[in-house]
Design brief:
Shape of chain B: globular
Shape of chain A: flat
Order of helices and strands of chain A: HHHHHHHHH
Number of strands of chain B: 0
Oligomer: heterodimer
Number of helices of chain A: 9
Largest interface: A-B, 88 and 102 residues
Distance between the termini of chain A: 33 Å
Helix content of chain A: over 70%
Structural class of chain B: mainly alpha
């Protein structure tokens, strides 16, 4: 099914046109998705499933579930994987570059300007005024993560892990990497036990 | 050496940040501000602010900019590679294996268990940014901007890019007089 859809598309569209489609699709996703990768998932769906038929809904669902299971940024994981499925390694690179390059260039231009004029007092005050706004955005994100933790783990377990993580990271200054690795080990422990028995 | 450090600084958040790019913000901050001291908290908050105002994936915007600031074009490529490649290679290379295991309860528990840890990291980062702001522009402006941006973002649901824009204008005007 998958192979059919992809090969049909590839044979109808010469390679260059297909690469152009990939470029355009992921450029649009990159330019229209505000709020980072996770909030651009619906845009990916509308380009990949509805507009270009590169995948059906089930395949898209599987891809998304898998991308969510793995660590790292979700937007580029989706772009790279879908690009790879549709047009091999060049499709993968194409999709990633199209979604990443335009906004990275935007960052360098904006922040470069800010850096260039940072010694002028009112520019200094201007960029300092952004700090509390970012604090609010992070605070809202924190609360989203806490709420979601409570809903998925029950509040008792969630508060226990929250307290433990806070103690380890801020109290004992353990690197967050070790705390997360500990969580991974803890999560997989039952699976390893089961494999051993089987 | 800088390239190796850039690689590490973005590789670690990308293999440990469960929950997409936004979840890796505090992990990146830990490396960039805390560990390697490439940026101050305020500089990093500018990166997050502009990153939130521009479209596109947030983790790669941070990696691209910080990589560029520390190591030029090559630095940007190294940081982007470290951010994107590990999890993408896992996904492309192990799709079949992963699909088999994706419904195992342990795999599903993974994201759930790591979420509170990310929440703690984000929470402390919030406090740190608020403190930084009080030191920078004083308690009065800080409180006003926190309340105002909270209302605009969460109650009126104004687009983050506009809220950042308004804060910039407010800061520039109050800085002039």
């Amino acid at each position: 099914m998958v192979e059919q859809v992809t090969s049909k598309n590839t044979s109808e569209r010469p390679g260059r046109v297909l690469q152009q489609d990939i470029s355009l699709a992921f450029f649009r996703i990159g330019m229209l998705g505000f709020g980072g990768g996770p909030s651009s998932i619906p845009l990916v769906h509308s380009e990949v499933v509805k507009k270009y038929n590169w995948m059906n809904d089930d395949e898209f669902g599987d891809t998304l579930a898998l991308a969510n299971t793995l660590p790292g940024p979700i937007g580029t994981k989706m772009a790279g994987y879908i690009g790879y499925r549709v047009a091999g390694i060049w499709g993968c690179l194409n999709a990633i570059l199209s979604s990443v390059i335009p906004t990275v260039v935007g960052m360098i231009v904006f922040l470069g300007l800010l850096q260039a004029y940072k010694d002028i007092p009112w520019v200094q005050h201007m960029s300092a005024s952004v700090v509390p706004v970012v604090a609010v955005m992070l605070g809202v994100m924190t609360w989203d993560f806490i709420k979601k933790s409570g809903e998925t783990l029950t509040w008792k377990v969630a508060i226990l892990i929250l307290a433990l993580a806070a103690l380890l990271i801020e109290g004992l200054h353990v690197h967050p990497a070790f705390v997360i690795l500990g969580c991974i080990a803890f999560a997989f422990y039952p699976l390893i036990l089961r494999r051993k028995k089987a | 050496m800088i390239y190796w450090h850039l690689f590490l600084a973005f590789f670690i958040p990308s293999i440990l940040g469960y929950g997409g790019g936004p979840a890796s913000i505090p992990l990146v901050e830990h490396e960039v501000v805390g560990n390697y001291e490439w940026m101050s908290t305020q500089e990093f908050s500018e990166v997050v602010a502009i990153g939130n105002s521009l479209p596109g994936p947030i983790a790669t915007k941070m990696a691209g900019y910080i990589g560029y600031a520390e190591g030029g074009i090559v630095g940007a490529i190294v940081a982007l590679f470290a951010t994107i490649a590990p999890s993408l290679l896992l996904m492309v290379g192990m799709m079949a294996v992963l699909l088999k295991y994706k419904d195992e309860p342990e795999v599903k528990n993974l994201t759930k268990l790591i979420r509170p840890v990310i929440a703690v990291l984000l929470g402390f980062m919030t406090i740190q940014f608020a403190q930084e702001s009080v030191e920078g522009i004083g308690i009065g402006y800080t409180l006003f901007l926190i309340v105002a941006s909270y209302v605009l973002l969460e109650k009126i649901k104004m687009h983050p890019a506009f809220v950042i824009g308004l804060a910039l204008v407010f800061g520039a005007v109050t800085g002039l007089f």
